Every structure is written in C-alpha cells, then in structure tokens.
Automatic annotation (TrEMBL):
InterPro entries: 2-MeCitrate/Citrate_synth_II, Citrate_synth-like_lrg_a-sub, Citrate_synth-like_sm_a-sub, Citrate_synthase, Citrate_synthase_AS, Citrate_synthase_bac-typ, Citrate_synthase_sf. It catalyses: oxaloacetate + acetyl-CoA + H2O = citrate + CoA + H(+). GO terms for molecular function: citrate synthase activity. It comes from the Bacteria. NCBIfam families: cit_synth_II, PRK14034.1, PRK14035.1. Belongs to the citrate synthase family. This is Citrate synthase. The keyword Acyltransferase applies. Transmembrane segments: none annotated. PANTHER family: CITRATE SYNTHASE, CITRATE SYNTHASE, PEROXISOMAL. The keyword Transferase applies.
Amino acid sequence: MTSSKGLEGVVATQSAISSIIDDTLTYVGYNIDDLANNASFEEVIYLLWHQRLPKANELAELKQQLAENMAVPQAVLDHFKTYEIKNVHPMAALRTAVSMLGLFDDEAEEMNPEANYRKAIRIQAKIATLVTAFGRVRAGQEPVEPKKDLSFAANFLYMLSGEVPADIEEEAFNKALVLHADHELNASTFTARVAVATLSDVYSGVTAAIGALKGPLHGGANEQVMKMLTEIDSVENVEKVITEKLDNKEKIMGFGHRVYRKGDPRAKHLRDMSQKLTKIRGEEKWYEMSIKIDEIVTGQKDLPPNVDFYSASVYHSLNIEHDLFTPIFAVSRTSGWLAHILEQYSNNRLIRPRAEYIGPGMQTYVPVEKR
Ligand SMILES: CC(=O)SCCNC(=O)CCNC(=O)[C@H](O)C(C)(C)COP(=O)(O)OP(=O)(O)OC[C@H]1O[C@@H](n2cnc3c(N)ncnc32)[C@H](O)[C@@H]1OP(=O)(O)O
Ligand SMILES: O=C([O-])CC(=O)C(=O)O
C-alpha cells in the first residue's frame, strides 16, 4: 500500500454538485463567472440543493422559507454571553452554536430526505443570524432581527450593523457569498461527507465542517490575509516584507491552491470588488497593497491568489471585523456543505480509507516495572 500525502490527486467520491476542470469552476455546469455576475445567493443555494436553477415561484418559496427560519433559540444566543475568556474566536463560537442548534430541533435525528431538507433550510437560515448575533453580543449590543423583504446578502449586513446596506455593498456581499458557496471536495466539505457517511445527523456534518474550515490553510486564510495587510500597512513596505517572507520560506496567506495551477477563477471578481469598494471608502491603500503583493508572489513564485486573498480587503471595506471573515465564509459554504451532505445520504457508503503503516515492526509487551 502506498499513500498520497494530503490525499493529493486522490478521487474520493463522485459528485454532481460542482467541478474544477482545467482551472474552470462550475456549479452544476454553470460557470462561476456567469453566476458571480448574475445570480443571487438564494438562487445558488437552490441550484446546489436541487441541481437546477429555480423557477420564479420556487425561488420566492425558498426566500420565504429562509426568512421564516432565521430566528435562533434564545438559549443559543444567551450562550454567547457565558464565555469566561474574552478572546473566543467567532469560528469556535459558531462551531458550538451550530451544534447547539441541533439540541433545539425536534427533527435532528430524523433521517429521511424530507426532514433532512427541512433541516438544511433551518441551518442555512440560522447560521447568518448566529454569526451576526455573535458579532453584536460580544460588543455589548443586542442582536438585530432580520427584515423579511431583504435579500440574504443584505440581511446579513443589516443584522450585523443595524443599517440597511447600500446597493454596491449588497452587490459585493452577494457576489462573495456566490463565489464561496461550493468547491468540489475541499477539506471542510470532505469532512462533512465523512461525518455523515457514518449516518450521523446533518448538525454533526456541518459542525465538523466548521471545524475544518477554521484553519488558516483553508477558510481561516482570509483573516490572516487582513492581518498581513494591517501589519504591512503601506504600499511602500510591501516589497521588503513580502520578499523577506518568501526568502524565509514563510507561506503568504491567500496564495497557492491544491487544485488550481493557473489561478483561482474566483479571485478576479473579488479583486474588482476590492478596487471599487476601497475607492468608495477612500482607503485605496488596501487594494493597492494587495495588487503589489499579488505581483510579487505571482511573479517570483508563480503562486496566484486564491479566493481568500482579495476577499479580505472586500470585507474590510464593508466595515466587517476581521475575525468575522472566516465565519462569513462558513455562512456561504454551509450551502455547499448541505448540498454534499444531502448527496452523500442519497447514495451513501461509509468513508473509510486505509493508512500505510510506517511504525515499528512486531514488538513484545514488557510489563511496566520492567521498562
Ligand atoms: C478557500 C481555501 O481554502 S483556498 C486556500 C487558503 N489557504 C491559504 O491561502 C494558505 C496559504 N497557502 C497554502 O498553504 C497552500 O498553497 C495550500 C494549503 C492552499 C495548498 O497546499 P498544498 O497543495 O499542500 O501545497 P504545499 O503546501 O505542499 O506547497 C507546495 C509548495 O509551494 C509552496 N507554497 C504553497 N503555498 C504557498 C504560499 N501561500 N506562500 C509561499 N509558498 C507557498 C510551499 O512552500 C511548497 O514549496 P516547496 O515545494 O518548496 O516546499
Ligand atoms: O478547494 C479547496 O481546496 C479550497 C478552496 O478553494 C475552497 O474550499 O473554496
């Protein structure tokens, strides 16, 4: 038996949800560029869950179902106030809160497709409320109730800040949600599929996936990008800092990808949004620094930016706190995780690969007093 480190190149399942072929990303056969330019996040949720775009009445129904399910049990909101340590990471809080939601769902253990679909709607709706409420509660503010007439993207920004966003802000955030929604068998989606392939419940799958997304080699990279930009602080400092990092063989967050070689097709949409939003804010430096870093890393290492790189300056320009960047990724990717969870259940087999053993050969047990 030989292993592939990090399972590189291993095809672990079949899926009809999204594909990456020759650096082109599609959701159910629709090019990501087409969706980023035209689709609402709600349409993408429907597309991922049903493998087709919704008709107008189906979209209206999904929007209504999401709006009706955004409220979160008070006990889950209250638990945000109980942490003893002050610097609880929002992804850790979210991981616990999603698990806790399952304790208030009468259907949590129901394993039929209809019940699982209903749970998918509840989780997708409530995860936006959880992230925004956590952001407010830790700042000593009350959560804001969603407005039923706003889109998912606008509602998120509204629930976070208490103000209905401008059209350009809603457009940028919707685009970010569309771009992050699914990505074939990335680490967190694989984690979700492994969890539910034991026939564990939907909440277990999403909770496990949040844990996997949290790390800086995956979704956690967007927060680290903003940390790097903040530390560099000016376009003049970029060359020195980045060259030093590369010379020291440090990883530059937001660059590189396991699957893409020529570049991540999602990055350009976020780059363009970063340019627009930083200009509107009068804070072009974040965009200009990002462009300069991109030139150096891509030029010197042939490592193009991934989806996490320009999303950092987009979210910063939307006045979002930096440690909420990864939870926002989770809000969007929940749609993909749920699509994969439903797909896994529909054609399930336990996921159980093998390990190539590299430890010592056969040994004889020695009693503790003789060791
Ligand atoms: C939504 C997402 O999850 S997108 C990815 C988000 N993560 C990041 O942006 C973190 C930074 N990037 C990385 O760590 C990697 O590129 C990953 C994790 C995305 C992909 O990792 P892998 O496919 O395992 O590549 P691996 O880490 O083995 O890197 C291969 C080589 O490229 C180098 N490399 C890869 N990414 C980077 C980077 N961001 N900066 C500098 N060098 C890099 C590695 O040091 C390694 O060099 P070596 O062969 O000389 O040792
Ligand atoms: O696919 C991956 O490995 C990581 C990624 O870009 C994503 O999850 O969006």
